Amino acid sequence: MKHGAAFLMNMAVFLLVVAWASCAQQSSPEPNPENGGATEARKEASAENMTTDGGGVVAGEESVVVDGAPEKDADKNAAPGAGNLVELPGKVVAHSEMLPVPSGAFKMGRPYEWEEEWGPERTIERPVHEVYLDAYEIGKYPVTNQEYADALNWALAQGYLRDENGDAFKNGLIYAYGQPIADTEASTSWSQIAFKRGAFEVRVNTGYNNHEFSMSDHPVVTVNWFGAVAYCNWLSEIKGLDPCYNTADWTRYEPVRNGFRLPTEAEWERAAGWDGERHWRYGFTSDTLDITRANYCYETGKHANPLGLTNVPRTNPVGWYNGVNPARLSDPDLLTLDSRSPVGAYDMSGNVWEWCHDWWCRPFSEEPVSNPAGPQTGSYRTLRGCAWFYPGHLCRSAHRSTPKPPDRRSYNYGFRLARTP
């Protein structure tokens, strides 16, 4: 009740400051050329048909691929004028906060029957089998735009960043260790990070009542698997830990070092769905999904989009679904539910897909396994968790996403950290 009273007081002040008015959600199941910068969209034929243009990004997972370069607009989402930027009550700023997960076995895989309305059954989610995991840590939140921008500024100072020609980075698509790793505003309007006056900074997005919101504590997007791994190594260096990845060949050092890394698919699912006794359907200790619990496409053409963002990506600040914030700014009486996973992590259903360590894919069997990390080689990497753009059945903690090439970038893809203590 104390939190609720404080929230209502903050919201009353907020109402006076910004003079809220009703606004319609501007969401679409297809990318909007005006909002997202895409010139054309097409249905994705299959995972095997997906390719990455060195200068482009893709729209989504399992349904849409976007062709064409996003339109460039230097003023779009530019830094706001004085008084335009709205500070949200209850704002969460992540600082690589990690949660302990004890060693032990859990039941991995979908323990419930497939529902016909979900379409063709994904048999790769079964059979349920026992998986033993050593103790590890997992990020409480996905990595944010601010965290990634801060790491990029550090990496720039170290001389790690390059352009497509191997020269020192000046702007556009970011390269490191011979791979494209992430976009900036100059390479796609979907990136929420800009490079201005020799430094990386986070952009703003227009939302509810035409106000501008900082994207600092939203999950970073348009970063590929290489970019997620590079961040893990950089943060390890910054904190005096041993980097987990060899960026000469992009393999993980074995035995696993004490630095930051991506979670394995098994570690991700255990943190999202397992409470020690049962496997929950969604990544917040519940078998029920609605817009008070996660940011996802709840109906064709309608997204939860709590800030009413008009431009892609329509993500939410990490940890938004905490039982204090409203499910939508346009409806302050409808509060979120505290949507932590069994280990206390937020945003494990919806918001952004999260890169995992594994190559695709480990076939499930009834045999118990210990610390699985996927195949030794492959062509595609694993993503988990679903995103704001996609329907609810993909938010299930047992859902195994269509795999993507490690150089794939999208306004739906982010990541969270893991670590072996």
Structure description:
This protein is an alpha+beta fold and 421 residues long. Helix content is 14%, strand content 20%. The chain contains five helices and 25 strands. The strands form ten sheets. The protein has a four-stranded antiparallel sheet with strand order 3-6-25-16. A three-stranded mixed sheet has the order 4-5-22, with helices on one face. A three-stranded antiparallel sheet has the order 7-8-9. The longest helix has 17 residues, at 2-18. 48% of the residues are buried.
Topology (SSEs and partners):
Layout: H1 2-18, H2 33-36, E1 40-43, E2 64-67, E3 98-101, E4 104-108, E5 129-133, E6 136-139, H3 145-158, E7 161-162, E8 174-176, E9 179-182, E10 193-196, E11 199-202, E12 204-206, E13 212-214, H4 225-238, E14 245-246, E15 251-252, E16 260-261, H5 265-273, E17 297-299, E18 302-303, E19 326-328, E20 331-335, E21 353-359, E22 369-370, E23 381-384, E24 413-414, E25 418-419
Number of alpha- plus pi-helical segments: 5
Major pleated sheet? 4 strands, antiparallel
Structural class: alpha+beta
Q: Compute the average pLDDT.
A: 83
Strand tally is 25
Radius of gyration: 20 Å
**Global outline:** globular
Give the low-confidence spans. 1-83
Strand order of the largest sheet: 3-6-25-16
How much of the sequence lies in strands comes to 15-25%
Question: What fraction, in percent, of the residue positions are helical?
Answer: 10-25%
Assembly state: single chain
What is the element string, with H for helices and E for strands? HHEEEEEEHEEEEEEEHEEEHEEEEEEEEE
Distance between the termini: 37 Å
